[in-house]
Amino acid sequence: MSQVTQVPLGRAPVALAPTQPVSLNINGQAHTLHIAPWTTLLDALREYLDLTGTKKGCDHGQCGACTVLVDGKRINSCLSLAVTHEDSRIQTIEGLGTEGQLSPLQQAFIDHDAFQCGYCTPGQICSAQGLINEGKARTEAEVRELMSGNVCRCGAYSNILSAVMEVLNNEGLVLEEKAWSAGATTQDMAPVEPPKK
Ligand code: FES
Ligand code: FES
Question: Which helix (H) or strand (E) is 33 found in, with range?
Answer without folding.
Answer: strand 29-35
